[in-house]
Specification:
Blueprint lengths: L3 H9 L12 E5 L10 H5 L4 E5 L5 H10 L7 E6 L7 E6 L3 H8 L5 E5 L15 H12 L1
Parallel strand pairs: 1-2
Antiparallel strand pairs: 2-5, 3-4, 3-5
């Protein structure tokens, strides 16, 4: 099947990696009853695209950690509930307001929390989709 984080990119109509904007994706979950061996705060320092699985009930804590790690309160994000299902919900926001929006919608499970500069970029695409890139690839194949 298709992973929900890939389905979310389609539903959000974004690319997770965009040249000169964001090239790193961190896919993780927030530590709850089961600890996470990696230090999530270390990932946050570079401001990559971060996708949190199983984290709808931790949105407030994640936002606090992100802001404490120097993400600005107006950093763009989205929560994707039951992405690719008939009853999917997508909530866009900024770090400053996403927690209240998620609570208003009553979302507490089955959601991805996505934080990315990709939400701010309109029209800029990965080099892979540019004509010049495909020309380079074709030239290499002919050699």
């Amino acid at each position: 099947g298709v992973s929900s984080f890939i389905a979310a990119a389609s539903a959000l109509k974004i690319e997770y990696t965009i040249p000169e904007v964001t090239q790193t994706i961190v896919i993780t979950r927030y530590p709850g009853k089961t600890p996470v061996p990696e230090d999530i705060k270390e990932f946050m320092k570079q401001k990559p695209t971060i996708i949190f699985f199983l984290s709808a009930s931790f949105v407030e804590k994640i936002v606090k950690d992100l802001i404490d790690s120097s993400f600005p309160p107006d950093f763009p994000c989205a929560v994707c509930y039951k992405v690719s299902w008939k009853d999917q919900k997508i909530i866009y926001g900024k770090l400053s307001d996403i927690a209240s929006k998620v609570r208003e919608e009553g979302i507490s499970s089955q959601a991805l929390f996505i934080i990315s500069k990709a939400f701010e970029v309109k029209g800029k695409r990965s080099f892979v989709y540019s004509k010049s890139y495909s020309d380079i690839v074709m030239k290499r194949r002919k050699s």
